[in-house]
Amino acid sequence: STPLYSSAASDVYKRQHVNNNCPGLILGVGSLTNSAEASLFIQMGANFIVTPVLRKDIAYLCNRKKIFWSAGCGSLKEICKAEELGCEIVKLFPGQVYGVEFIKAIRGPQPWTYIMPTGGVLNDKNNITNWINSGAICLGMGSKLISKEIVENEDYEKLTKDVKNILGIIRNYLYCWNFCLDDRNNATYHPICINYGLSLIHI
Asked: CA 191, CA 196: separation in Å to the nearest integer?
C-alpha cells in the first residue's frame, strides 16, 4: 500500500486544505486497516473512520476519542458484533456481492440496524433507488464516483457534476415519496458519497 506520509489523504490533512477552504465539509478517511493509521488521521482532524473489515482496535480507539466509525461487515454475526462494539452504521462490503435482498433480510428481524452498502453503488437512478428501497440508510461510493481517470486528468468539473446528479436522485426520490432527510421509518437518512482515500460526506 502507499505510505501514509505520501498519500493524497495525508497531504490534504497536513495542509488543512479542508479547514481553510471548505469549513462546512465533514471529512473522514478510509479504508483503514489498523489503529495506528486511524490514530494518525484522528490527530490530523478526521471526523470519521471507515474500515473494510471489523477491527476491534479501531473500534476501541474511535470510541475513546468519540469519533464516528463504520466497520465493513459481510454476515449477520459480524454486523451484530460491530453493533455490540458501538458501530452505528455498518458498511456492507462488497455491496454488489450481497445485493439489496441481503439488506432487506437483515432489517426484517433487526430494523434498528443501519447499513451502508459500499461497492456496487452506481451513478444511476434505478441502482440508487433500489438500494434506498432495500432499507439502506446511506450509500458508500469509491471508484464508481471518483475514478482513476478523474484523478489523473484532474477532471473536477465532471466529479462535481456526478456528485450533484447523485444527490439530486436521492433528494428527488425522498421528495416524491413524501420522505424527509430526518424521518423515514423512525431512522435518520443521509446521502453520503465516499471516496476511499479521502472520504467526503455531504448532509
From this structure: 16
